[in-house]
Specification:
There is one protein chain. The longest helix is centred in the N-terminal third of the chain and has 7 residues. With 162 residues, the protein is mainly beta. The chain folds into two domains: 86 residues, Chitinase A, domain 3 (Roll), CATH 3.10.50; 49 residues, Thrombin, subunit H (Beta Barrel). The protein is globular.
Length: 162
């Protein structure tokens, strides 16, 4: 079966930045699964997987525009420490959920902590980076009706409902 919209892909991957040899992310146990066509992975990688079959291996370079986007310095902000709970544990690099004026939540990452404020970055940590994936397709199958309704994979390697 070929990878197309609404198929489930189970793959093994390694991710490096630019020409680095350092692996910054991987599917350590080879069970990363996702539903194609439902915004579960970056668009540039998904596009390169279309048409592949089980057993295929490929190296894919994904530009920032097709990955996590270009950096936008207007998404960097300073907020008073007082907006966080008193016992909040601040660690540079961790994500925090904020809410906009309409009540929609969005992630930001802690960039720095000062005495009176916290520097937050609304850019994904990999924004502006070229993503170099090495992938091996382990399985391709049709998605179940439930997976299509929920927009993600159920079972080994991904999402479970309790």
């Amino acid at each position: 079966m070929k990878i197309t919209k609404d198929t489930v892909v189970v793959m093994d991957y390694e991710l490096r930045l630019d020409e680095s040899d350092e692996v910054i992310d991987s599917s350590d146990d080879g069970t990363f699964a996702f539903l194609v066509g439902h915004e579960n992975i970056v668009p540039g990688l998904e596009a390169e997987l279309l048409g592949l079959t089980s057993g295929a291996s490929k190296k894919v370079a994904v530009t920032a525009a097709e990955g996590y986007g270009e950096r936008d310095e207007s998404k960097v902000m300073a907020v008073p420490r007082s907006v966080f709970p008193e016992d909040f544990y601040f660690e540079v690099g961790i994500p925090v959920e904020l809410e906009d004026d309409q009540g929609e939540s969005f992630p930001v990452w802690i960039q720095g902590v000062k005495d009176d404020h916290v520097e937050l970055d609304g850019n994904h940590p990999l924004a502006g980076e070229t993503l170099n994936f090495t992938i091996k397709v382990l399985e391709v199958r049709a998605a179940t009706t439930e997976e299509l309704a929920h927009g993600h994979v159920h079972g080994a390697g991904d999402h479970h409902h309790h």
